[in-house]
Amino acid sequence: MFKIINKQVLMEGVKRLDIYAPFVARIARPGQFVSICVDENDERIPMSISDAHAAEGAISLIVQEAGPTSRKFGNLGINEEIFSIIGPLGVAPEISKKGTVVCVATGIGAAQILPVARAFKDAGNKVVGIIGSRTRGRLLLEPQLRLVCTNVLVATEDGSFGRRAKATDLLRQLLERESVDYVYAAGSAAMMESVCEMTKAKHIPTRVQLNPLMIDCVGMCGSCRVRVAGRSVLACMEGPSFDGHQVDFRDYYTRIRGLDICDHNQSFSPKKKESGTFMKFVSDILSD
To answer: Which of 277, 266, 267, 117 is nearest to 186 (CA)?
Structure first.
């Protein structure tokens, strides 16, 4: 039933899979995700919906081959089938006319901001995209973002493309010279925390897409608990996006300990791992 109808290699170890899932494609909204199971006895993987095509009945998922299950998924070919897909899951962020909206992403977080940026553009906003990676070879979805954003600013840490900087550096410079009404960020925990510190000081509403551990993705296991506004919430049921100014990032770092939080410039930088049923969203795999 869930057949792969198209496949594209975006870079080494990163692939886009278009999957026939008409009931998901019809009702999916930007910011939501699905839980997939490749074979009947496999663990489930939560993955953001990077695009939905209602007419074709297909959704697009971008997978980073980080461990056995994700490699198995990425190695599937056109016309092969997936055992099950549950979704769309999560609460979609509010999309409305706000003015100037900045969407910031690092690594595969670009796959999460792409549908959100498109939706804000369709709602009549000026949308500025900011994406960053270590090198040009790890930069993802830049051409696609240029199609939906009024402007796209690119940062690479080695200076191989765009500005030699971090994505947060470009955001800081943008906030100094332009009026911004809303910010949406997806990527590493350190990047999102830095974004929230900057926007809070300027009283700019900010939404962040968190990537905690998930197992069942429907609120039964409680593994995706995060603290927002002083209370514990389940990212799978009330997220995965939250008011960034209300997120307890210290607690969030503790929750994702053992995963690569993509922060090689901070003292806390545990190694990435994928084992058992403990999986993470793809956006938290590559660094800013």
So the answer is: 117
Q: Residue 18 is encoded by which pair of tokens?
A: 């278009």
Tens of pLDDT along 68-123? 888 999 899 999 999 999 989 999 999 999 999 999 999 889 999 999 999 999 99
Same domain, 21 and 85: yes
Which residues are 19's β-sheet partners?
4, 59
pTM: 0.85
| Amino acid letter, residue 247 | V
What contacts 200, CB < 8 A, 6 or more positions away? 206, 244, 245
Q: Domain residues for 228? A: 100-284
Question: Which CATH number goes with the domain that contains 10?
Answer: 2.40.30.10
Burial of 209 (0-12, 13-18, 19+ CB in 10 A): buried
Residues 35 and 108 in one domain: no
DSSP one-letter code for 247: B
The Cα 273–Cα 280 span in angstroms is 10
What span, in angstroms and rounded, lies between the C-alpha atoms of 164 and 149? 21
Strands of the 241-243 sheet, one edge to the other: 163-164, 151-156, 126-133, 100-106, 182-186, 206-209, 241-243
- Provide the token pair at 147: 């199609």
Q: In what order do the strands lie in the sheet with 45-48?
A: 45-48, 33-37, 84-89
